Amino acid sequence: MGTQLVDASDIEKQLIQLTAEHLRGNLSRGQLLKALRKNVLRMTQIRYCKLTGIGRNALIDIERDQGEPTEAIVNKAFAPFKLQPVMVRPDIEFLRRCIDSTAASSPDSEQVM
Predict the structure, then answer these.
(1) Pick the residue with more confidence: 15 or 84?
(2) Which domain of life, per UniProt (predicted)?
(3) Is the pTM of the predicted complex or chain greater than 0.85?
(4) Which in 2, 9, 18, 107 has the greatest CB count within 10 A?
C-alpha cells in the first residue's frame, strides 16, 4: 500500500465539513476527533498519540466519548487541527435563536438579508 498525496485544499474542505457537522450536532466530539485523525491525517492511534503526546487510552476514551479527560488532554488531542474544543457543546438551537434575534434587532438587518 503506497502513500497517497493529499491536496491541501482537500484537507481544508474535510476539516471544515467535519467541524460543521460537529457544530450541527451530527458528530460528537469523539466522533469528530476520530474522523479528523483517520480521514484528514490518515493516522493510526499509535502514530497520532506520538504526534500529540497523549496516551493511547486517553485517545480511545476521547474518541469513544467516555471518561472525563482534562481540558489539557483534549486540547492536546485537537492541537494538530488548531481547534480548541469547548468542554460542553452548546445547544445548537439556542445558538441559532441567539443569532436570529441578534440579526433581527440589528439596525442594518435589512441590508444583511
Answers:
(1) 15
(2) Bacteria
(3) no
(4) 18
